[in-house]
């Protein structure tokens, strides 16, 4: 997470993220995924047994058979389609709001769109935490952060013919802050191998301060 955030900042120093940099980000995502798979094969027998017990088809109550598989495939495809449609509607609505209030698209992206797209991650993390699946909760946050930078932004850069322009404010404030938060997470995660409630409150207050600064000083 630290490497992806810092790497993104360094790539954006020239004010644009081009196709080559997007390709590098996607390649990094592939390398990262391959490394995770390789490391997972080295897990001890106890960890593998615990995973097998918790996520086996029997434990999850999964049904077998072609009909059930086809139904799950239909749900997956439908969900992906609705996600794309919802994303298109969200972007259109966000741009309209930006034009209505005379603020930049970047500010809307950093506030309304960011909060909206993070809602599923919040729900997943809270549910996993309440079920005492702390590894799933932390893994979801770290994995989604890395995927947003390496995969989503990388593919977007590749798809954009002239790359993605990075505004001066984003380069001067938002990207350094993102890198700083990623760096700050490391000692927090390393301390006692857990994130305390106090540390969570501190992170949340920092986010509130950041959002307040966006609204007050940049709108």
List keywords for this structure.
219 residues; mainly alpha; A middle domain of Talin 1; two-stranded antiparallel sheet; 9 helices; 82% helix; globular
Question: Any overview of this molecule?
Answer:
This protein has 219 residues and is mostly helical. The protein has a single domain, classed as A middle domain of Talin 1 (Up-down Bundle). It has helices at residues 2-11, 19-40, 45-55, 57-60, 66-101, 105-130, 134-159, 168-190, 197-217; strands at 16-17, 164-165. The protein has a two-stranded antiparallel sheet. The two termini are 29 Å apart.
- Biggest sheet descriptor: 2 strands, antiparallel
User: In CATH, what is the class?
Assistant: Mainly Alpha
CATH architecture: Up-down Bundle
> What's the domain count?
1
Could you say what the CATH topology is called? A middle domain of Talin 1
User: Which structural class best describes the helix and strand composition?
Assistant: mainly alpha
Q: What gyration radius follows from the Cα positions, in whole Å?
A: 20 Å
Number of strands: 2
Task: Estimate the helix proportion, in percent.
Answer: over 70%
- Written as H for each helix and E for each strand, in order along the chain, the element string is HEHHHHHHEHH
Identify the strand order in the major beta sheet. 1-2
Q: Report the total helices.
A: 9
> What is the CATH homology-level superfamily?
NCX, central ion-binding region
Query: Which term fits the overall shape?
Result: globular
Mean pLDDT: 80
Distance N to C terminus: 29 Å
Sheet-strand content, in percent, reads under 5%
Low-confidence stretches: none
